[in-house]
Amino acid sequence: MSTVTQSKGGERIAAYGGATAIALALALPFAVSGFVTFQLTQVMIFAIAILGLNLLTGISGQFSLGHGAFFALGAYAAAIAIDSFGLHYGLTLPLAALICFLVGFLFGLPALRLEGIYLALATFALAIATPPLLKFSLVEAWTGGVQGVFLAKPAPPFGLPLSDDQWLYFLTLAVGLALYWVARNLLESRTGRALIAIREHPIAAGAMGVDLPAYKTLIFGISAAYAGVAGALSAIVVQFVAPDSFAFWLSIALFVGLVVGGVGWLPGALVGGAFIVFAPNIAEGVSKGLSGALYGVILIVLIYLMPAGAGGLLRQLGLARGPRSSR
Amino acid sequence: MRCALWHRFWFAASAAAMVVLAPVATADDLPGVSDTTIRIGNISPYSGPASAYSQIGKTIEAYVDKINAEGGVNGRTIELLSYDDGYSPPKTLEQARKLVERDDALLIFASLGTPTNSAIHDYLNGKGVPQLFVATGASKWGDPENHPWTMAWQPVYRTEAGIYARYILENRPSGKIAVLYQNDDYGRDYLEGLRAGLGDQAKSMIVAALPYETTDPTVDSQIINLKASGADIFVNVATPKFAAQAIRKVAEIDWQPLHILNSVSQSVGAVLAPAGLDAAKGIISAAYLKDSSDPQWAEDAEMANWHAFMDNYYPQGDRNSNLTVYGYAVTKTLQHVLEAAGDDLSRENVMKVAASMENVRVPMLLPGITMTTSSTDFFPLQDMQLMRFDGERWQLFGDIISE
Amino acid sequence: MELFTQQVLAGIATGGIYALMALAIVMIYQAIHHLNFAQGEMGMFSAFVAWQLLLWGAPYWLAFVATIALSFVAGVLIERIVFKPLRRAPVFSHLVVFVALFAIFNSLAGFIWDFTIKPFPSPFGTTPLFGAGLIGAHQAGMLVVIAVVLVALFLFLRTTRLGLALRAAAANPESARLVGVRVGWMMALGWGLASAIGAVAGMMIAPIVFLEPNMMLSVLLYGFAGAVLGGLASPGGAVFGGFLVGVLENLAATYVPVVGSELKLPIALLLIVVVLVLRPYGLFGRKPVERV
Known about the structure:
Chain A has helices spanning about 10-30, 35-60, 65-85, 90-110, 115-135, 140-145, 165-190, 190-200, 200-205, 210-240, 250-260, 270-285, 290-305, 310-315, and strands at about 150, 240.
């Protein structure tokens, strides 16, 4: 019941689906208002972060409740590089990726000795510790302390006939597609297969000579880098970073987005991103006083309807590929 | 790939069709205003960590209902769109853009919080949309030179801290000060204001300043350390829950400093009573609004009107919280501006009217306190009065102090 | 030295809060091998229910017992209604449902009872016990409550057949089913008991931090930390962990300059992660045996 039962038809549908999605993505900003373009950009930014989580969770079977911390790190790295050092905003993306990879890798070294709930707690601790660290008075000169950092909105380069919103949309789309491509190739690579082996049978993989800690730490770093790039994009698009933007709730939202989209199904990241952006809007549209409760109810209903997320539902219908579910 | 190209063309074509079909607004329309309605936007944290403050947004909605039930403003009903940002700055920007670009709101009114308003500060000023009477006390909201579309409302945190500094210098010039502050923009603004107000003395007088995070369960540990610093003046810059914990703990460990409490937490019903009225005896604070739970206003006509409003339009609202009073008074101020603007409801004129208030008084302000603005002064409320808690009610003393 | 004593005692007092929460966490972990993110909010909601009963004129101990009973039933119902249909869903989906429950309880409490803080009575009184308010009567009473819950939980899990069945159902559902344990009802029982302990925690914590919808968020975090530090399989370890977190947090804030007061929370969390890395199953836990 796993990847082997992949039908030819399913693959073709997936290919068509992908092509349609890209075409739709290219046309959309010309069809909707600047505000909706901005919302869609936000969706893609969250999707990039969830993609990183999906690499970690879907492939190595571990999960993180602290990726909001790497999102914040990437955002602050970009903001500080632009604000204090005058770096071009385009260059902040690889910078954020590099910094978050290193920090993620270093965090992964000790943390990945932990399993399941213990790893969840360690990563969650990271998420909770983020706002106080960002506010810390000794680094205030760079982080702006409680006030945060303001950025200018980048205009489209080369005199492209696009609005600012459209330009940032296409920039995010391009980055997202590139990172999606990388993620897919990681999956299909030798490394990817090794990682999936770890997920299914950790001890057996160890016995077969797969170097568990090395791969786990590596994938943790890569996944942190994804979150970092998303954070950097978010800083550029929102033009403002502050500790309150990265409360622990962000980490939880990313995790929820991952599950709603479907663990192990990469395109599900977009579904998850859309959920993060639009679910609260739907909830508040029904009742403001109870918006939190409605958000919870929507979430439970979704999990009832698709216990393994959107990806799990599509797999059941034979429309998506990938491992069935996580354990 | 051929397939993908085909799809791309198809979608591009349909997209183009959608653009052509989209309704186009005419240029002379005033944004957010019709002959019968005025559309106003508001952003409040209805969910998330700051949801306690959503009472301001709910009171605003209730008061707008009252305005509409009584015939609206100059014959126009107010259509209030209040959105939830969960106190997350990126979400605030999304909601502000929705209000401006999709809903075509005339202005954004009393949006809550410093980081959240910071995220939309440049956007709204770039678009020329009034960000009127923001519900935060940071000093940056009254900067007409750089941000002509943003106006404050409540007295600035730093001003209030300056009032306390002056009081301390006059009454306890050789005192030693301990400060408890919330570790965010609000707490640090008070601390800065206190330091500025004490001037050269700040370094020698402030012997301890300890922060707390809103994630701390209690502030007991901080209070013990503040007492151990040997201070005889305690400046309590905390939000209601933590302020009440601090008041109780100070009494418990038998510390008897001159206790100065910031206005955020001066509600008798919501802070002092839970902490213990005896423990709160002797506390000093500065105010600009009447406290609905203070018995000294029991016979007050404005208070009676407020209670009638709460009965009829917001019965489930919390009368002990000063946020419901705040929401009432700030919406009264909006009502004043819209009425004074008459039929010229362009964004420019609304801003101009808001910037030319002269000793305007709205109900629930302390007697003698009024609002004045000008093209260079975007701080409507700058007056406060000191008061001391006698174990039952606040006793106002001294003159009205303005900066 | 006086400051040190005071901070340690204050740390024990707040540590007691964490310890109670940690006990509820250990209970639910024993039943479902998960950390329930909504545990704190459920406890908060229970405390509000008790507050409402008191407001309606119920005597304290009646409200206390009624709230525990109601919470037990609510816990069982949540398992039966929300989680039973999701038995086959992946574990991640369960975590997400915890998040959903968190949002629901938090939002409902704010909607029904408002956000203004409410004083919550203590059955033990509020008078300081040893001069200068070193430790209050309520805090002392809470320590007794912790001891009672701890002993009861320990005896239940270790010496009763039901406790054994409950642990078996969580540890190895298939085998447990084969020997006649009704696994589903064991989980429901675990939920009920955890939510009853959570109610006790809520009613003991509310007098200290004041009753309001967000009162349990931070307590839950520290409770997690305490429980994991001590070991999720050991009630005694969890209580010890709770106290340890409370004391360490206060001492770090007092004796490490600048960093200590501003980064109190990150330091406490860092310590926990360090302990976990050195002893991955907590100070008193053991690594479960795994087979391939």
